[in-house]
């Protein structure tokens, strides 16, 4: 008979004594169990004790968290959180430096525990730590442990950041602005300032007054990757929280300080590989930089504004005149309508009307003017080349430039907030001070080239734009490292190549539709599905690393999950850092029997997505979320690192439970593998040697069916 579901068998340790093996009744009050354990070792005052996990983060066990205890868990009897908080609060104020150092070291470790943190904060512990920092008497390891404890305590969200004093901010900013400071102190100081900026509007202004952008950029030129990451994170936080009227000013300052080239040379092209957190911060900086274009993108042109109309006059002048227009010349004005038509504007009389739709608004005009002035020969060639074609094949430069600008804004998500968990930065955008404009110039030449390759007419405009979008997105997916490399990638993605790729992909989806081929496909499918199922289960046995995401500041905390080789148990546990390769089962302290798993939830149905419904949920995170629901009404929550891992795990878990694998990846793999197998089998059929036979009796042509032995 299986044990009752409310009974868990655990081992409890106490220093200097043999461990107690007990059956813990989850229905009994925790205090009653602790009293019984204390009696077993003849310890009095059971209310002064508590239970903690012996492994991993060693968190305190409470009535709310006791449901996470599994059979075979090793626990430890420890002093209660309140008692520990009181003792540490006294010890960190000791006159003995050694005693204070040991206390702060222990406090830095315990502060991550929410139960302990609540007790310590209730005893005004954060105020005590703040005063220790403000005093300026702590240095080296002692200061590093103090800052670590402070940051961990604040990250629990129990105390508002708005309560932080100005003197504390000045002291922390001082560590960042100092030319020589201990790495651990600098790292924690940068993290504290980032949290201040992100969590308090009022503190943003105070931090912005204390921190010099030049000093932050200086921290990017060091060899320590962690310092570089925290420095960019703080720059991003200041950028993100800055008032709209300050962002352009801040961007100009960063440009003057050569932020882009420093990131390119010291981070992207540095000696060490870029980790996930750094990739995310580079992506955030890329998004925030492109979001500076949003104001122009959403600004309509005023057809009556002479200054704005002068820009259009300049486009016409560069293309057709070569020198300044004589003012007040009626003859010249009469030719404007013809010239604007040759420039490809929709409204030949007043092309300003073409820029009244947002997006892309005035941003399109800015792009066109940049091309005309910086790449003048290219601009003139495109305009004159199309103006000399037959009318039905001319590529309307103005209309194309406007639509292309709108398309690029959509592809690069201009105006949207960064997605948590996204690392999709493009190195090439850090290789040029005017990366957006240069990107446009490359793409408008691509559009003109594709138009010619397609021999398009005005009726084909939307088709051409669809092909160009595909060319650009495919090239970006290859992550070109420079603008020149982007050009090379696009050269290889001409219209003929796009047609070939489409045909190849269509073949994998459609293949043949004759009855024999359909029959062959149906016979092959179960075999291929079983193959895919085994591949998914093998990947689950290898395991995957997941990053912990929460309401707290972004930080590198990981956990790993893998399936046992006999497919009967899910093993999981916390890790200090992202693993390099497979993690042994022995290091994964928690487990779930597969027989206890009831279902797999995805997306917004996941409990950890519902809990955050009050916050702005990024669509990307929502699409990567899934949960394992197991007895008794418990969940193990995941956020996959990417779409591929999401499909692998959700498919694998469904296969484990005997349910249908329904991800896009499975459908794609199924189509691809079936097509490959069909081609191989049909090739075998074609190579069969047919023995000679008498010539058939001539008859009317007809369609022939064939059958094939698949066994």
SSE blueprint:
Elements: E1 7-13, E2 20-25, H1 30-40, E3 49-53, E4 74-79, H2 81-91, H3 97-110, H4 114-122, H5 125-135, H6 140-154, H7 166-177, H8 183-199, H9 201-210, H10 213-218, H11 225-241, H12 244-256, H13 259-268, H14 276-290, H15 294-297, H16 306-320, H17 330-342, H18 362-374, H19 376-387, H20 397-411, H21 435-453, H22 461-477, H23 483-491, H24 495-509, H25 515-542, E5 544-547, E6 558-563, E7 569-575, E8 590-593, E9 597-602, H26 607-610, H27 619-623, E10 625-630, E11 634-639, H28 643-656, H29 664-686
Parallel strand pairs: 1-4
Antiparallel strand pairs: 1-2, 3-4, 5-6, 6-7, 7-8, 9-10, 10-11
Protein name: Engulfment and cell motility 2
Subcellular location: Cytoplasm; Membrane
InterPro entries: ARM-like (IPR011989), ARM-type_fold (IPR016024), ELMO_ARM (IPR024574), ELMO_dom (IPR006816), ELMO_domain-containing (IPR050868), PH-like_dom_sf (IPR011993), PH_domain (IPR001849)
In words, what does this structure look like?
There is one protein chain. This protein is α+β, with helices and mostly antiparallel strands and 711 residues long. The chain folds into 4 domains: 7-79, Ubiquitin-like (UB roll) (Roll), CATH 3.10.20; 160-273, no CATH class; 306-504, no CATH class; 526-667, Pleckstrin-homology domain (PH domain)/Phosphotyrosine-binding domain (PTB) (PH-domain like), CATH 2.30.29.30. Helices cover 53% and strands 9% of the residues. It contains 29 helices and 11 strands. It has helices at 30-40, 81-91, 97-110, 114-122, 125-135, 140-154, 166-177, 183-199, 201-210, 213-218, 225-241, 244-256, 259-268, 276-290, 294-297, 306-320, 330-342, 362-374, 376-387, 397-411, 435-453, 461-477, 483-491, 495-509, 515-542, 607-610, 619-623, 643-656, 664-686; strands at 7-13, 20-25, 49-53, 74-79, 544-547, 558-563, 569-575, 590-593, 597-602, 625-630, 634-639. A 4-stranded mixed beta sheet has the order 2-1-4-3. Strands 5-6-7-8 form a 4-stranded antiparallel beta sheet. A hairpin with a 3-residue loop joins strand 10 and strand 11. Helix 3 packs parallel to helix 6. It is flat and about 105 Å long. The two termini are 46 Å apart. The relative contact order is 0.05.
